[in-house]
């Protein structure tokens, strides 16, 4: 899967701090794994995780101390907040309730808990700092240059070089603290005295820069020295200088030329302060080595134009220009709270082959996202060209038709004189194959290294089964998910699109949450979506709205509510609901204006990408496979009203609960009058999606549910011979919809199919990520991205919640109560899975051996679990070698549909049963 050490990181939300606690009999050990700097709130949320030996560990109380200095915290003085002992079992999402926090405030905190095992000692200290909360805190000025240079081209295919900025300043002795606040639009690198600051890449994160601009905060105390210092930046284009400026202005939003805002604050031991800001006193040039950088087209680097020492003191910048004081982009400045993008992994190439004179093609063995690091020796002025693609033609050359007009080409010009090493810094590529042209000598796999670049999210899940195909499908999903994290969730990372389409990550965000701690990324994306909302309530299909697509359909913008619901269900993030409730309600009110007689009329995409009946077809011609768009839109409106009822209930809005329920009732009645055929017991044209949505959304009359589901079974097993026939919308509910009705075997059959259409078909055709089209290799490969996640549907949710049996209770959310209910389907011998929830690690490892079922589970401290063991009776279940019903910490509840249900507290358990 991912060649990176597993990071046991507590899943936390935007603005949270975190703390681990290990409790034995009396002791608590707390380790801070992230000390966020520059948070953009005065009310952060604090969480800790309790681990320990024994069973049934539950928290009964806690005490939090927050101090203004580490020394005060060590002395147990909570001058900012002493919660005192609070009787509560809550250990996550605790709102800071101390003294008001101002800009730049440093906060040090620790916690101790009382549990069923006794009182702990204080944890180790952790910290956070507050960013610049007010516009008046910023003294820096925006600087840039709102023109191109003679070697640039501002056209449909832009060629804009990087801009290099520098300034020298003097610092006195006795520096107590130095902090830099930095914005570089679109991307930046920051240096102090020649040393890079931070290990992030591709910063600043993407937003609609007219609505919000993200800044980074760095503690650079160790980088500043007494005397003269140099601070320097390099600016790339990113999403700010549009990848296709002057091209379809009605579609593509433009922001202008790169610009920066920098504020360095020095605090001395004697109490004095010094501030260095970006202003007209800086010097800049664009005549440096990065000659062009464009996310679609690549980066060109001319090492003969390097400027040795440009970011250090003493460099001669006499010929450099003075920057302009430029207008701000208009967006509100906010501190970055989602994880930065980093190089998270390296990939060794498999082979390099000569395909024609001067041209080699390298196979990385994996469709990956990032860049190549190249080592090369050659003459001054020689050029090496690297072009990227996902697949090759029969003659071994690259296949690039599916990349559209993206040039995806890096060019490196050698300076000569020895071995040179280079990789781009302001672009990324989605690729498996690389065309190498004019490389001096013969390139080998040892001359290149693939560097995987994406949001550095903690890995929270693992999943392995006895079925190698399923393992490959899971592996492909993980590679696809991580490759499309770029400060926002993308649809694809390789062609001239790379847009944050909403529907691609609707249920997808839920699936992804089992693999990566995606809480802060998706909290940030909710802000992007809200900022893209028009005053009338309309929400776009792409957010941030880099493309002007406001088609006013139901299904794509519905992602807004689905992601908010995911953050609450998986992470306990109630703030996501309260913060966005008004905007979500506003959108639903707006969409009701398109409703006629309680039928929602607006739909643009239908059940997007339904697999055609023949693998040679681009679109299905069989009308029985397509689903009425109004049916989809109306069913979704009903589903979302149910979600809003729940949100309103949680936020204490009783009138809204009543209004949503009344409207939902009218829609349900009219929906069934319009689409349900009481004779055939089917909806509309009887497609799987037509029947599945109303059934899963609980719109079907109670007396008709079995018959409607029978139509789904027959359609899949008979008409489609056990194969999938749903598109992006239906597939989001398919696997759970089948399993909830007792047909996990059908879901398993579709998972393990290897002929068209199926996920296994992609694997057997050599896919190492997910395709955009079920038949992307035969219908029209030029239309097929080979790294899309939208066809993933609810497959990974099903893997974890159903095959592994790891699921959060719907009321005691965020895995406070865990539902352990595996589906040991025929053909599957074992599942080993784990999920690091916000409360701690959950493990499920089961295997079948004849009629025996062996199941090892781990439940984190301060939680409980409902455990469903496949068995004929409770007496047939053993736990750790004794009758389960009498085992310590195990309580028998009842028999239910061939399972013995037990309630357990935290700890490790081994269940054995005979069926």
UniProtKB/TrEMBL annotation:
SUPFAM superfamilies per UniProt: Six-hairpin glycosidases (SSF48208)
InterPro entries xrefs: 6-hairpin_glycosidase_sf, 6hp_glycosidase-like_sf, Alpha_rhamnosid, Bac_rhamnosid6H, Bac_rhamnosid_C, Bac_rhamnosid_N, Ig-like_fold, Rhamnosid_concanavalin
Protein name per the record: alpha-L-rhamnosidase
Record-annotated Alpha-L-rhamnosidase concanavalin-like domain positions: 355-453
Reactions catalysed, as given in the entry: Hydrolysis of terminal non-reducing alpha-L-rhamnose residues in alpha-L-rhamnosides
Gene3D superfamilies, per database record: 1.50.10.10, Galactose-binding domain-like, Immunoglobulins, Maltose phosphorylase, domain 3
UniProt organism field: Mucilaginibacter mali
Molecular function per GO: alpha-L-rhamnosidase activity
Highest taxon, organism lineage: Bacteria
Enzyme Commission number, as recorded: 3.2.1.40
Alpha-L-rhamnosidase C-terminal domain mapped to chain residues: 812-882
Chain ranges of the Alpha-L-rhamnosidase six-hairpin glycosidase domain: 460-803
Keywords: Hydrolase, Signal
């Amino acid at each position: 899967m991912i060649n990176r050490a597993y990071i046991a990181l507590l899943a936390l939300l935007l603005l949270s701090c975190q703390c681990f606690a290990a409790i034995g009999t009396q002791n608590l050990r707390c380790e801070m794994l992230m000390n966020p700097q520059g948070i953009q709130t005065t009310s952060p949320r604090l969480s800790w995780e309790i681990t320990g030996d024994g069973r049934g560990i539950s928290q009964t109380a806690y005490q939090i101390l927050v101090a203004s200095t580490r020394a005060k915290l060590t002395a147990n003085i909570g001058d900012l907040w002493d919660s005192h002992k609070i009787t509560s079992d809550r250990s996550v999402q605790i709102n800071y309730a101390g003294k008001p926090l101002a800009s730049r405030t440093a906060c040090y905190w620790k916690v101790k808990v009382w549990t069923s095992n006794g009182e702990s000692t204080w944890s180790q200290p952790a910290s956070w700092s507050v960013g610049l909360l007010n516009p008046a805190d910023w003294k820096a000025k925006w600087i840039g240059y709102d023109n191109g240079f003679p070697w640039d081209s501002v056209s449909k295919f832009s060629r804009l070089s990087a801009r290099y900025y520098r300034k020298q300043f003097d610092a006195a002795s006795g520096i107590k603290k130095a902090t830099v606040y930095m914005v570089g639009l679109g991307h930046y690198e920051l240096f102090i005295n020649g040393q890079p600051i931070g290990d992030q890449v591709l910063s600043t994160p993407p937003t609609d820069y007219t609505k919000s601009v993200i800044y980074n905060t760095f503690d650079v105390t160790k980088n500043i020295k007494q005397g003269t210092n140099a601070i320097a930046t390099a600016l790339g284009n990113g999403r700010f200088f549009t990848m296709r400026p002057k091209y379809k202005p009605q579609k593509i939003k433009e922001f202008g030329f790169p610009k920066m805002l920098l504020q360095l604050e020095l605090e001395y031991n004697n109490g004095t302060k010094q501030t260095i800001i970006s202003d007209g006193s800086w010097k800049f040039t664009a005549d440096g080595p990065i000659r062009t950088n464009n996310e679609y087209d690549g980066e060109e680097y001319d090492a003969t134009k390097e400027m040795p020492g440009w970011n250090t003191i003493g460099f001669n910048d006499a010929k450099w220009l003075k920057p302009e004081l430029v207008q701000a982009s208009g967006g509100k400045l906010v501190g970055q709270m989602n994880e930065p993008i980093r190089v998270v992994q390296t990939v060794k190439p498999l082979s390099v082959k000569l395909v024609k004179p001067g041209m080699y093609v390298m196979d990385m063995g994996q469709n990956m996202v990032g860049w190549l690091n190249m080592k090369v020796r050659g003459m001054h002025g020689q050029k090496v060209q690297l072009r990227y693609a996902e697949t090759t033609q029969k003659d071994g050359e690259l296949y690039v038709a599916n990349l559209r007009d993206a040039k995806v080409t890096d060019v490196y010009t050698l300076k000569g004189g020895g071995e040179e090493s280079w990789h781009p810094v302001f672009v990324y590529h989605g690729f498996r194959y690389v065309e190498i042209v004019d490389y001096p000598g013969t390139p080998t796999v040892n001359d290149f290294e693939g560097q995987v670049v994406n949001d550095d999210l903690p890995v929270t899940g693992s999943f392995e089964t006895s079925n190698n195909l399923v393992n490959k499908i899971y592996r492909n999903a993980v590679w696809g998910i991580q490759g499309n994290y770029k400060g926002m969730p993308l649809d694809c990372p390789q062609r001239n699109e790379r847009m944050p389409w909403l529907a691609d990550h609707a249920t997808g965000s839920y699936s992804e949450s089992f693999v990566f701690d995606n809480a802060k990324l998706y909290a940030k994306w909710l802000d992007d979506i809200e900022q893209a909302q028009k005053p009338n309530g309309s929400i776009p299909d792409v957010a941030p709205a880099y493309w002007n697509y406001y088609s006013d359909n139901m299904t794509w913008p519905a992602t807004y509510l689905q992601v908010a619901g995911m953050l609450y269900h998986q992470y306990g993030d109630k703030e996501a609901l309260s913060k966005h409730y008004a905007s979500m309600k506003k959108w639903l009110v707006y969409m009701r204006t398109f409703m006629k007689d309680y039928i929602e009329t607006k739909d643009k995409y239908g059940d997007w990408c339904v697999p055609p009946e023949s693998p040679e077809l681009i679109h299905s011609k069989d009308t029985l496979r397509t689903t009425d768009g109004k049916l989809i839109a109306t069913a979704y409106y009903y589903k979302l009203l149910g979600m809003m009822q729940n949100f309103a209930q949680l936020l204490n809005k009783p009138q809204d609960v009543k209004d949503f329920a009344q409207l939902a009732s009218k829609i349900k009645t009219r929906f069934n009058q319009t689409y349900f055929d009481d004779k055939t017991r089917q909806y509309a044209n009887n497609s799987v999606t037509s029947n599945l949505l109303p059934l899963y959304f609980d719109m079907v009359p109670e007396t008709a549910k079995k018959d409607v589901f029978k139509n789904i079974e027959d359609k899949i097993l008979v008409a489609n011979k056990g194969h999938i026939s749903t598109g992006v919308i239906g597939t989001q509910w398919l696997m759970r919809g089948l399993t909830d009705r007792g047909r996990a075997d059908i879901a398993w059959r579709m998972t393990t199919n290897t002929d068209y259409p199926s996920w296994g078909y992609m694997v057997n055709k050599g896919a190492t990520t997910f395709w955009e089209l079920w038949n992307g290799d035969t219908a029209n490969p030029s239309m097929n991205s080979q790294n899309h996640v939208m066809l993933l549907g609810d497959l990974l949710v099903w893997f974890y919640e159903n095959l592994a049996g790891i699921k959060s209770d719907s009321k005691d959310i965020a895995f406070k109560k865990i539902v352990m209910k595996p589906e040991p389907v025929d053909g599957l011998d074992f599942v080993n899975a784990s999920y690091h929830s916000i409360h701690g690690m959950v493990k499920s490892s089961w295997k079948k051996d004849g009629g025996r079922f062996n199941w090892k589970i781990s439940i984190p401290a301060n939680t409980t679990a409902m455990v469903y063991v496949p068995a004929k009776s409770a007496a047939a279940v053993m736990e750790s070698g004794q009758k389960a019903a009498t085992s310590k910490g195990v309580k028998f509840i009842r028999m239910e549909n061939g399972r013995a249900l037990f309630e357990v507290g935290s700890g490790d358990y081994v269940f054995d049963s005979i069926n």
